[in-house]
Automatic annotation (TrEMBL):
This protein's UniProt keywords: DNA-binding, Transcription, Transcription regulation
KW Cell division (keyword) present: no
Residue ranges of domain HTH araC/xylS-type in the record: 222-320
UniProt superkingdom: Bacteria
Single GO MF annotation: sequence-specific DNA binding
PROSITE patterns: HTH_ARAC_FAMILY_1, HTH_ARAC_FAMILY_2
PANTHER family to which the protein is assigned, alphabetical: ARAC-FAMILY TRANSCRIPTIONAL REGULATOR, TRANSCRIPTIONAL REGULATORY PROTEIN
Designated name of the protein: DNA-binding helix-turn-helix protein
Keyword Transmembrane helix (UniProt): no
Length: 324
């Protein structure tokens, strides 16, 4: 069905849509660089939090490793960092402890946890269990509606707290071995199909063990979550996302509420708040730099936003985090 929304305006020199509600980009200086105020600070070449790209000899965008690989990367794994890829952790036997954003998480026998790109992680390597880690880029899963829904159902649920899924009694070890065989097999048209199918099964088993309220919403909610993840540092109005996705307000509101039990505006605010908390907790940026980096015109507006949604000022939050 054709959208009844007006077409997006475009710039002759840049065919990508632009939104007239945005203010001209002002600049600030961070690390001696002049950057737009609403630059995504986490994607800069000198990151505020160490960020690792997907780096694999496989051309598929997928890699499977025993959990012992964390000890081989101990210096990186035990330090605060982010990744630009998904990381599915499955413990066959033993226990794996880590800090994920602001929570301490423990994965035990036959449990799994999906870590999304951009989440702040630090592993405790006192003891490593038997199990596997599946590393993959978002594009690997595919662009089908069901794939978008699955990935971003998991992503949307992450704002409500991180859930470890029990996969007890399921043939997970066989799926892991199948994935590893496909990665070493001679390339063929079937290699990608089989590897992608195995990963879809793993993700689906993790997803259906989430709380019931985290399910639903369909493709539309998934597309919204993906758009927020990509644009939250420079698009702040829900109308911008409606135009970007070509959908009506009621459609979006219904899909997002069904998926995560909140309005689209509340979800966007929570996502911006989460990024603010990450930068305040895990970076050395000043509060002013965090405010401008997240797109606020003035630090005072950021302070009001943060106090409204977090219940305390950015400075008090940073002090409280430093005491833990």
């Amino acid at each position: 069905m054709a959208s009844i929304l007006p077409p997006l305006q475009t710039n002759r020199d840049n065919p990508l849509p632009f939104f007239p509600t945005r203010q001209p980009h002002l600049t600030l200086t961070i690390w001696g660089q002049h950057i737009p105020r609403n630059t995504d600070l986490c994607s800069m070449t000198q990151p505020t939090i160490q960020r690792y790209p997907f780096n694999s000899p496989s051309s598929l965008g997928l890699e499977v490793k025993p959990l012992t690989f964390l000890s081989e990367k101990a210096e990186k794994a035990s330090a605060i960092h982010r990744a630009d890829f998904y990381l599915l952790l499955w413990v066959e036997e033993g226990r794996l402890s880590l800090s994920l954003d602001f929570e301490d998480v423990c994965i035990r026998d036959e449990e799994a946890l999906l870590i999304s790109p951009g989440q702040v992680v630090r592993f405790c390597l006192d003891s490593l269990p038997k199990g596997f880690a599946v590393l993959f880029v978002p594009e690997f899963v595919g662009e089908a509606a069901s794939d978008i829904r699955l990935l971003h159902q998991l992503l949307g649920a992450s704002l409500r707290g991180y859930k470890v899924s029990s996969l007890h009694g399921l043939p997970i070890l066989g799926l892991m071995h199948q994935l590893m065989r496909e990665l070493t097999a001679q390339e063929s048209v079937y290699q990608l199909i089989i590897a992608r199918s195995c990963l879809r099964i793993l993700l689906a088993e993790v997803a259906r063990r989430l709380p019931h309220e985290a399910e639903g919403g369909g493709e539309l909610a998934g597309r919204f979550f993906a758009a927020v993840e990509e644009h939250h540092h420079h698009l702040y109005n829900i109308q911008d996302y409606q135009r970007l996705l070509g959908i009506m307000e009621k459609q979006l509101a219904g899909a997002v509420r069904q998926a995560v039990g909140m309005t689209p505006k509340a979800y966007l605010d929570q996502r911006r708040l989460l990024e603010a908390k990450r930068l305040l907790s895990f970076s050395d940026l000043s509060i002013k730099e965090v405010a401008y980096g997240l797109g606020f015109d003035e630090p005072t507006n950021f302070n009001k936003f943060f106090r409204k949604h977090a219940g305390l000022s950015p400075g008090d939050f940073r002090l409280a985090q430093g005491e833990h």
